[in-house]
Amino acid sequence: MRYDAIVLAGGRSRRLDGVPKEGLLVAGQTLLQHALAAVRGARQTVVVGPEPAGGLPPSVLQTREDPPFASPAAGVAAGLEALGRPASSKPPDGHRAKRDSVPARPATRVPSPWVLVLACDMPAADAAVAALVAALAGDALADDAPTGEAASDGMIAQDPSGHLQPLAALYRVAALRTAIEAKRAAGSLVGSSMFSLVRPLHLAAIPVPAGSTDDVDTWEDARRLGVRSATPHTMPSTTSLPGASGPAPPEAHEATAPSQRPTQGEESNR
């Protein structure tokens, strides 16, 4: 089954004191490296965010949403644009959708009918991705034919407690593009959450293993998931963690349905 992948790695990390999530380490690799390994089955992958200090694999594209930190929805739109851009075209200034060191791809490229959207801050996302891809492969209607009515517009990860994660999901590209254009027509993608973007879509909930969509939003999350900073002194001590000596400061989240707890996808700047 053909699919491309968009890896979101460009948030402000406000509750991590501004430390970039993509550079946090687990089991000796960065969270971005884990995310790229999880989507290794994709035909083409684009990272939406700043290029990491160590660079990206030659085959991986890189772009940014405009303006940077606009929203997860804007990041997905930028990723789709980069994936759909002809290999011979020049990306916008500051975007590197074709890397200098990569041999030129064919001038024309047939886009995949499906796109996997994955946030980079879920250390165990490979298990969730595997469940989504298996569901796609087993869906008789999830074919490459451009015609015919689909049973769903995508497949979204659902953990054992029933929570949905729109940043661990497979979307039919045509349906996702329609949702993006509708969102733009209604106003702007700036500040838009993924839940608000994909709410009109018919998404099949796919059960994924416990913990596979747990994300790193705070230092407490990082400790619980075995994630550490590449620069140890930037990680606060246990006693300085929110809640250790008092209540955590309130966080503003967009209202969601009761079964949809706020996730990274609900933060306007990831």
Describe the structure.
This protein has six helices and nine strands. With about 270 residues, the chain is of the alpha/beta class. The strands form two sheets. A seven-stranded mixed sheet has the order 5-4-1-6-8-7-9, sandwiched between helices. A two-stranded antiparallel sheet has the order 2-3. Strand 2 (about 25) and strand 3 form a beta hairpin. Helix 1 packs parallel to helix 3 (about 125-140).
Task: Describe the structure using short key phrases.
alpha/beta, seven-stranded mixed sheet, 270 residues, 22% helix
Brief write-up:
The protein is an alpha/beta fold and 270 residues long. It is built from 6 helices and 9 strands. The strands form 2 sheets. The chain has a 7-stranded mixed sheet with strand order 5-4-1-6-8-7-9, sandwiched between helices.
